Structure formats: C-alpha cells, structure tokens
Amino acid sequence: MASRIAKIILWIIAAFYAYGALVHVLNILGMTGFDWMDAPAKWQILDVVYLVLDITVVISFLLSSSIGYVAFVITAVSQIILYTVLRDWIVDVPEPFTRSPDEIAYLDTLVVFHIVTLLLFSLAMWLRRRTASSGKG
Questions:
Q1: Is the pLDDT of residue 134 over 90?
Q2: What's the DSSP call for residue 32?
Q3: CA–CA separation, 133 vs 42, rounded Å?
Q4: What is the spatial distance between Cα 80 and Cα 83, in angstroms, rounded to a whole number?
Q5: How many folded domains does the chain comprise?
Q6: Closest to 91 in 3D by CA, of 107, 76, 80
Q7: d(CA 136, CA 133)
Q8: So what's the pLDDT on residue 136?
Q9: Residue-range definition of the domain harbouring residue 56
Q10: Separation of alpha carbons 89 and 102, rounded Å
Q11: pLDDT in tens, 56-92
Q12: DSSP string covering 63-98, please?
C-alpha cells in the first residue's frame, strides 16, 4: 500500500511538472503575452533549461527512473533560489518585459509550490524506503 501511495504522489508531481513544461512550450511559441524571440536571453535560456528538466522529471517519474529524482531536486531547489535570492535578477528586464507587482508576487506562490512538492517527494521516497526495508510492496 505504501508503495502505491508513493507512486501516486510521484504521478501527481509529474502532472504538475507536465503543466510546467507546457508553460515553457507556450512561452517559446510566443503564446503567453510576449514574443519569445525578443525576450531577454536569460528568460529564453531558463525556458529551455526548465523545459528539458520538466520533461525529464515527468518521464522519469512515470517510469520510476532515478534520473528523474535528481532532475526534480535540481529543478525545485534551483527555482526556489531563482524566485527568492535571485528574484531581482529575474525581474531586471527591459521595459517591454517588465512584470506587474502582482505577476512578481506570483513568484512567492511558485516558491511555496516547490517547497510543497519537495516535501511530497520526500514523503514518497520515505514510503518507498519503508516498503523496501519491510519487504512489502
């Protein structure tokens, strides 16, 4: 039972990261309110990097591959750092790309999201270890 709960938790996280990947694709296609080709280079690089990481997390979580666990931790922790410690760098962009205070405040929601997913991931890994050590599946 614990193993099934762990798998469900990972699938839920994978669904959220699939949504994240979709947002990056929509950014790249210029469907989120700005022309991506004109966007600041740092935004373009971050979109591509996080698209690759999000896809890696999704596929690996669905296939129970440990590479996804590493990609997930890198993704979650680095985005927490980007949206807190490096927030000023992220939002320091040319005038046409300046975000409203509400849009910038949304980064706080993303920080909470990543903290929650890290906690859920930790729970899933604990459940898996518990199942493995008890010999039950």
A1: no
A2: S
A3: 44
A4: 5
A5: 1
A6: 107
A7: 8
A8: 60
A9: 2-134
A10: 17
A11: 999 999 998 999 999 999 999 999 999 999 999 999 9
A12: HT-HHHHHHHHHHHHHHHHHHTTTHHHHH---GGGP
